[in-house]
Amino acid sequence: MLIGENIMLALNGLLANKMRALLTMLGIIIGIGSVIAIMSVGNSISSSVTSSMEDMGVNNITLGVSQKSTSETSTADGRVFMGFSRGSTMDDEDYITDEMLDAMKEVPEGKRGAKFVSAVCFILPDGRHLTCMGECPGSIAFERLNGDYGFGYDPLFIPADCGVGKRDKRPNTEHRSYAQLTPDEKDAISHRGNALAELEKQLPEFLAEK
Q1: Residues near 161 by Cβ (< 8 Å), separated by ≥ 6?
Q2: Alpha carbon 121 to chain centroid distance?
Q3: Tens of pLDDT along 84-129?
Q4: To the nearest whole number, what is the mean pLDDT of the chain?
Q5: Residues facing 80 on adjacent strands
Q6: Burial of 185 (0-12, 13-18, 19+ CB in 10 A)
Q7: With contact defined as beta carbons under 8 Å apart, do 145 and 172 qualify?
Q8: Among 93, 104, 123, 182, which is most buried by a count of CB atoms within 10 Å?
């Protein structure tokens, strides 16, 4: 009897508030439909990309990332120093030594520009390839600014920005070196991350080309 009374009470409530009941049902229908549509579009895009790659005989993708610091700074006597990082062959004369920093001490801050650069190349068996670049601009420090999160040239490189969270960034007003930034602060300005983000952006159009 209690169940029957509850059903009758619910029906009477619906009949007494027809417009509210209609809007509630409409909201539920639209919400569920939107979720289904979003999932369908996502699955469709994924299937389309997978199908295109399978048609070309590609079942596995291997991405290789190499980076190279492209800093170039001239000293007062005209000497030029080029910087390198992981992924490139380094001879003894390629390292930035204390003597080089001392020779560069007269170079003003505005002329100590440098940047980390990363390249990502996507290559198909037919020879077509897509190369995307990512950069992290900054400058060479006047001294080594060691931190807890750096290696190689990181203590010598002052990025122009530092990350806020995983995606946002702000000017590096504290002039901290790459070695002094936390991993989260590096993520938003990472040259490798920027290269991969550009690859993700261009890849669907590249795969759609025949």
Answers
A1: 169, 170, 171, 172, 188, 189
A2: 15
A3: 444 444 444 445 667 777 878 888 888 888 888 898 888 888 888 8
A4: 76
A5: 74
A6: buried
A7: no
A8: 104
Write down the pTM of the prediction. Answer: 0.54
Give 199's contacts (C-beta < 8 A, 6+ positions apart). Answer: 63, 120, 122, 130, 132
28-58 pLDDT, tens digit per residue, is 888 888 888 888 887 777 777 666 666 655 4
Residue with tokens 């600014």: 145
User: What's the average model confidence in pLDDT over 143-150?
Assistant: 81
Q: How far apart are CA 105 and CA 100, in angstroms?
A: 9
- Beta-sheet pairing, 168-171 with 161-164: antiparallel
| pLDDT score for 89 | 47
How far is residue 85's CA from residue 4's CA, in Å, rounded to a whole number?
A: 77
Residue whose token pair is 């940047």: 115
Q: Are 56 and 126 in contact (CB under 8 A)?
A: yes
DSSP secondary structure of the chain: -HHHHHHHHHHHHHHHTHHHHHHHHHHHHHHHHHHHHHHHHHHHHHHHHHHHHHHTT------EEEEEE--EEE-TTS-EEE---TTS---GGGS--HHHHHHTTTS-GGG-EEEEEEEEEEE-TTS-EEEEEEEEEEEE-SS----SS--TTGGGEEESEEEETTTEEEE-TT---GGGS-HHHHHTT-HHHHHHHHHHHHHHHHHH--
